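Good day; I would like, with your permission, to put a structural problem before you. What I wish to show you is a protein chain and, alongside it, a tokenised description of its three-dimensional fold. Please examine both parts with care and let me know of anything in them that strikes you as inconsistent. Thank you for your consideration; the sequence and its tokens are set out here:

***
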Amino acid sequence: MKFISGFIFAFILLAIAGLAVAFTGVVSVTARGPDNPVVAWFLTTAMHRSVARQAAAQPAPAPSTDLKAGFRLYNETCVYCHGGPGKDPVDFGKGLNPEPPFLPDTAAGWTTAELYWIVRNGVRMTGMPSFADSHSDADIRAVVAFVQKLPGMTAEQYAEYEKAP
């Protein structure tokens, strides 16, 4: 009985401490400067694990071969934050915290299902919006197919997509 009452007491103390931290405003919520390394590790790990789990729970999307539509959507919506071969993110993309990943360097680390899940559902508190309500499934699959081509794509190849009608 002492163990259970001690456990309940400890839980109540932790809850009060958590509320005290929230209500005192001691936690910095600025988008400037890096996160505490422990917090950054925790949030990044939680995001990666959550995406992997959620994506695995759904059937993999049918692959798309419409790279032109994927490029169009990427160039209209994604390049501003994520950049592209020969393209830096714009100012507001650089000002997000956490910094959006440069997809030509990082897209290969995600499966098709995971990329699809991220684009479709977004990632809370990262600036990554959900496109499920604003874009069709075919559009989301097309942009995922294009994103998967970014690793290894040169600036010249990206520019060729820009020149295409």
In short: The CA atoms of residues 84 and 96 lie 17 Å apart. The radius of gyration is 20 Å.
